[in-house]
Amino acid sequence: MVKSERVMKFPVPDWKRLFSKEFDKITTCFCYQYDIDESFYGPYGFDSSIAKNIINDFISDFVFYDVVERKLTNVDNVYRNGLYISSDGNSLGNEIEIYSMAVKKNELRKGRGLNEIEVEKKPILLSVDSECKIPNEVIVHLINDDIPFFIVNDYMPEAGKSIMIFSEEMVKRFLDVVRKYNVDICAIDNIDLMKSW
């Protein structure tokens, strides 16, 4: 095992909520701690070189939903809080692009005094308007459509940047990557039991 680094698994904290408690039973949270001393003190975050490799392997086919730009963007880390979605075989990005183009065309038509054209239904991801709150209907849609996703949130002074995963298959995938790098995995019953940093 890699000394002084570990992944910690913990239940969804009750504070700084991004989504409804109804999803807590299916959600698993993970954080990373490194430079750990004999008293289990050490910084949190996916910042060590091993942690960065784990994240790069895990998110290789994921994109980040940028709530400001209103689009899916490629990423190679989890530095930003919010929603990360598999880019493998889903049409969410295209739906947003087509909808946004239609809205812009209507703005131009309206400015020229022309009739607006009918716009397709607003894509579900556009209901996410804050990195701090993911609407229930978005989570339900992603789960029902079998679209792999996870959410990143920052919990300080315990846990730091944390990944919240909503399916056992994704949890297994994440832990397989962690094991590939020979990093210790431990489970904590409550975020309050972690050492503050």
Automatic annotation (TrEMBL):
- Species assigned in the record: Candidatus Pantoea soli
- This chain belongs to the protein called Uncharacterized protein
